[in-house]
Amino acid sequence: MITGINHITLSVSDLEKSLKFYTEIIGCQAIAQWQRGVYLLAGDLWLCLSLDANTRTNPIDEYTHIAFSIPKDKFPEYSDRLKILGIKQWKQNTSEGDSIYILDPDYHKLELHVGDLHSRIAATKKAPYEGMKFFIESVNNQQSTVNSQQSTINSQQSTVNSQQSTVNHQTNTKIAIQGVNVLTPDGWLNDATVLIEDGQFTNIDQAITPDGYQLINAQNFQMLPGIIDLHGDAFERMICPRPGVNFPLPIAIADNDRNLLASGITTFYCSITDSYEPGLRSRDSARALIDFILGTGKQVLNCNHRIHIRHEEANIAEHQELCDWIVSGQVHLLSINDHLPPPGNHRRLNRYLNSVKQRSSMSIEEIEELITQVTAQRHEGDGQIQELVDLAHTYNIPLASHDDDSPEKVKLSQQRRVAIAEFPATVDLAAQSREYGAAVLMGAPNLVRGGSHLGLMSVAEAVKHNVIDCLCSDYHYPSLFYAPFKLQELGLMSFEQAWSLVSSRPAEAAGISDRKGKIAPGLDADFLLISPHNSLPSAITAIASVYVAGKEVARYQTH
């Protein structure tokens, strides 16, 4: 005898994107997650999202759909919110009860409906469908049904727990790193044993290693938290090493992944410029990068990749698509940029012309014509920028400013509630940014090279005035690893303080400190094993191994 629907499984192409849609937009409750799936509860219904390379890429031309119940008083709120967010609809309601018909990120047809079978039968008895006949007088025995459903729910929950236990057993990896000197949030812990299970740290300084752990001897090595890079665009040179010369994205980004790991970077915010320029920094290029990194790239990339969209204010094309990326969880950091040279500023114009010339095959005349066209429409995007800012806050996506070079721009960033101030021009502007609560982010190449390539505030100067919170690779990945050694060598910071600028403090600024940035129980086991007693310029050769989520993804020395 069938007692009800046990569960529904939906194939999805992007697990994190679909999880965010079903929890934050639809309102389901997350119960359990593993590498290739998620269990959710939609009211009393067990819903499974399963990662599937063969997921549909367009809506199927049929009426099959799943309808979720929502309270009548919540329908206007849901309806208005879905329309504001631009969630695509596949049908207009013509039936009894309020309904809105929407598509999920993988084109599954959904309905949010007010009412139940009892109300539908009551309505159709008054106005029957063509040829309709009824097999029972009424939908009754409701209490009996509730009791039966509750029994089913309990059974389902038991099944969820049982299956999750099976999943954990199948993917369980227990590692004990022994004899290592660990940089913890409280300082160095020497000759420690670090326990890792299912990709997370579970214990530090465990005196006796429990049974069932894979033992790794790390005596004479140091363990450092993996580097978190909030702003890096050196991958552009992997795609386009010479003007007009492009390599296929899968090759370029896979090669870039190896460069990241070789520099000790375990979490990378791929800084994709969403510009009005054609080619490397175009919307088409941004779309292709996102599709690869969050799609098939997950099978080949070992560094934890996240998406940082650097949106140019003057790019007003295809605004809704960018909004959709934010709503669907494909953007993890949003910065507002304005690299368009102001009229009459010849220094900025020449610098911009040279910059575009290096990444495209456009002539100077073509670039100047592009600038003229974009300048004429730049203020049409003001309203779009405000909508992007609002969406970022709605979906808890960190917002960053870029190159604030005046008190007016800092004030605007404050009004936008910016979380990260990228590359403020002066000590005073950096201090003002920190005063309203932004974390100041600067480029590690600035420190390693001895100053800003644009003649602005140096990292050394920022450290001396205590107006810096984080470092990023900017355009050169190895500099991010070298920087803490450089700060120690210059006597500006202890190594332990300096390493926090590339690990725990970027995690805090990006809102991921509950998962990354430190070697501590409950956090992702992203870390480096390095040889001790290193100094510039050979410090980067000290990296022995790189681990992401408890898995060794790169090895450069035997241990």
UniProtKB/TrEMBL annotation:
E.C. designation(s): 3.6.1.63
Keyword Transferase on entry: no
A Pfam family this chain is assigned to: Glyoxalase
InterPro entries named in the record: Amidohydro-rel, Glyas_Bleomycin-R_OHBP_Dase, Glyas_Fos-R_dOase_dom, Metal-dep_hydrolase_composite, Metal_Hydrolase, Metallo-dep_Hydrolase, PhnM, VOC_core
Domain of life, per lineage: Bacteria
Keywords for this protein: Hydrolase
PROSITE patterns the UniProt entry points to: VOC
GO MF annotation: an example: hydrolase activity
Span of domain VOC: 4-115
The name this protein goes by in its record: Alpha-D-ribose 1-methylphosphonate 5-triphosphate diphosphatase
